[in-house]
Design brief:
With 234 residues, the protein is mainly α. It has a domain at 66-128 and 156-233: Ferritin, CATH 1.20.1260.10. The protein is 78% helix and 0% strand. The protein contains seven helices and no strands. α2 runs antiparallel to α3, α2 runs antiparallel to α6 and α6 packs antiparallel against α7 (205-233).
Length: 234
């Protein structure tokens, strides 16, 4: 009887020991996700810390001068017309794939820049459109009667007239492609002139950075358009 009791006691002790190990293992396993969650949270925190400076770097500073204001106010309608010209081409039938790719690239690049330029002007407390002169001076390729703080006399160069825009809309096929490339090349050169002036005379770092990007992007696109134009003209 004693032997039976002893065996029962040992069996019970072993069962309790095994249960204890299982509980301990479950608790340990339960703790692991908490550690993983903590690590994940740490990683998320690190990512947030990494992206915050980037967002701050993109914020527009309030410091600016007349050259910055004029650059933004002039570049908005200039970009808007480039987008309009490109959308006119994209609406045409049987568009050459290279022309289509170029037009889409211009829309994708200049659309967001228009928003950025407006944000700059709003941050500076400046109007987002020209207060004097209007589009007539721009369409004529100059800014007559509009002082923009430069002795160079360069104005809103490269802008197409309403008549030229109507001609582009009416053209089809090779004629439309050739017209678009010729007009957009002149349009880009006008934008580059304005951007170069901003780099030389501007004060706001974000405006100057955008001007430098305009110069780089549009010089590359001019080379591409000249190549496409040569292909069309044989």
């Amino acid at each position: 009887m004693k032997r039976s009791t002893t065996l029962s006691t040992l069996a019970l002790a072993s069962a309790l020991a095994l249960a204890g190990c299982g509980t301990s293992g479950e608790e340990t396993a339960g703790e692991a996700p908490e550690t993983t969650t903590s690590a994940a949270a740490g990683t998320g925190s690190t990512d947030t810390a990494t992206t915050t400076p980037s967002t701050s770097a993109q914020a527009v500073t309030e410091e600016h001068n007349d050259a910055d204001t004029m650059f933004a106010q002039m570049m908005i309608p200039h970009h808007e017309q480039a987008v309009q010209m490109s959308e006119v081409m994209l609406a045409k039938d049987d568009l050459d794939p290279d022309i289509e790719a170029l037009a889409n690239k211009i829309v994708a690049a200049q659309g967001p820049e228009i928003d950025q330029l407006k944000t700059m002007l709003e941050t500076w407390g400046e109007p987002t459109s020209m207060e004097s002169g209007g589009m007539e001076g721009m369409e004529s390729g100059g800014m007559e009667g509009m002082d923009h703080g430069s002795d160079s006399g360069a104005g809103m160069e490269g802008m197409m007239t309403e008549e030229q825009m109507q001609e582009l809309e009416a053209a089809e096929g090779t004629e439309a492609a050739e017209m678009y490339l010729t007009m957009m090349t002149a349009h880009h050169r006008g934008a580059i002139d304005m951007a170069q002036e901003e780099v030389a005379e501007g004060q706001n770092p974000q405006a100057i950075e955008m001007a430098q990007k305009v110069i780089e992007d549009q010089e590359a696109e001019i080379q591409e358009m000249e190549r496409l134009l040569q292909q069309i003209q044989g």
